[in-house]
């Protein structure tokens, strides 16, 4: 199982993010779409300055971007990083899409299927960019319909708020030889209860988003904090083994709690 780290770009300078990416010493680093940086551009800027690590988006929102425009940006990022770019895309959520971009969020699965049928050929036939390979293409799929689309039209999925049991029962059976990238909050600590309470407070609104609520319900979970990997080194190592056995091909870590260096050290074994 490969190891990646999520870089929080909110209110961060490029120098900060390059330094963090270089110091992480992992297989991959990913950036998200926020109210600031453009994720594909940011990934290209970081990847061009940090060699030897894959750089991806987790995820780029599809609704405000024409497939041709995103394909051009992704291939440019692939060229800038020496073919180390990973394009993660997703439809986001109704409030963000309709309020921020003023477009309808109806039938997101249909939207994603149509989007991928246009995007994928453009990525595989890059015009006028020598020596560029198609980037790995992942989608944020949680439910059975979206996972089916990921299996058919993408290279895999980027998951969030999912336990090893959820991967085994709900995700892996619907993907056939495809990538399963799991984003998870991980924190090594000697006070697991306190850190869980902190995470529960910080993520209290996440479970109210319909896409996430349905995914949690399918797993029999009440809160996203139940998917966090929290505890000492032995607890975290045991959970990493369960994730790998479940079929996770890459763990994308969002470090939780104050002991960042301790957490990263434990993840690297």
UniProtKB/TrEMBL annotation:
Which Gene3D superfamilies does the entry mention? Answer: Luciferase-like domain
**One MF term in GO for this entry?**
oxidoreductase activity, acting on paired donors, with incorporation or reduction of molecular oxygen
**Record's CDD domains?**
Tetrahydromethanopterin_reductase
Annotated keywords: Oxidoreductase
Task: List, for all copies, the residue spans of the domain called Luciferase-like.
Answer: 13-249
Q: Which organism is it from?
A: Kutzneria buriramensis
The reply on keyword Oxidoreductase is yes
Top-level lineage group: Bacteria
Pfam families hit by this protein? Bac_luciferase (PF00296)
State what protein this is by name. F420-dependent oxidoreductase-like protein
